[in-house]
Here is the input.
Amino acid sequence: TQSVVLLENNGVLPLKEVKNVLLTGPNANSIWAMCGDYTYPAMSYFWKKVDYKSENPHIVKLLEGMQNHKPEGVNVMYSRGCDWTEEIETKYGELGDARAWEYELLHRKVDAGEKADKAEALQMAKNADVIIAAVGENVMLCGENRDRQGLRLPGKQEQFVEELIQTGKPVVLVMFGGRAQVISGLAEKCAAIIQAWYPGEEGGNAVADILYGKASPSAKLSVSYPNVELDAL
Here is the structure.
C-alpha cells in the first residue's frame, strides 16, 4: 500500500456503505498488471524459456483480493468488460546487417482466458452501488523495448469507462502500469482515482485493502500527469 497513490476521492472511498460492487476492466482479474518488467512471470512469458506456473509464485489479482478481504454483507460482482488491445505482429528478415538474424517484433495480446463482454458488464452495472474500473496497461504494453504511439488508455478502455460513467453509478478508476496515462477526459467524471502502478505479488490484497478502508494509500506521485499527449512529447 505504500506505493499506491490516491489521486482523487469525492467521498466514495472507502467502500463502507455499499452492498453491491461491480469490478470490471482488463486489469481486474489479470496477473499481468500486478508485476512489472524483469519479474519472473513477465520474463518467463516473454522469453518462453519456462512455462509460468500460476502458483510459483502465486500472484494475487485484484478480483481475488476483493473477494478475500470484502467486509461481511458485501457482494462483489465481476465482468471483464473490455480488453487491453489487439495483437499486431511484424517480422523483419533481411536487415542488411551481417550480424542480424531474423528479427521478430511482436506486440502480444495477453490472453486472460476469458471473454470481455461489454454488454454483460453494463448490465451488471445497473445492480451495482459502485463500479471499480481496473484499467491501464500491463507488462506487455509497458516495459523495456515496448513502445506505444500515445499515452491514452490503450484499446477501447476510455470509451468503456465513459459508458460505465453514463450509468449514473459512481466509478472508481484504478490504474495499473509503469507510467502516467492521459486521463484528462475521465478525471472530472470519476468518483475516485487510484494509481496502483505494478503493486507486486500481493497487489490484489493491497489494493483491495485500500478500497475497503483497511489501509491507507501513502505514496505520492513521482511524475507529473500530462493533460494531453502533446504535453509529454
About this structure: The helical segments are 40-47, 62-69, 118-125, 157-165, 184-187, 203-212. Residues 5-232 form a domain with the Rossmann fold fold (CATH 3.40.50.1700).
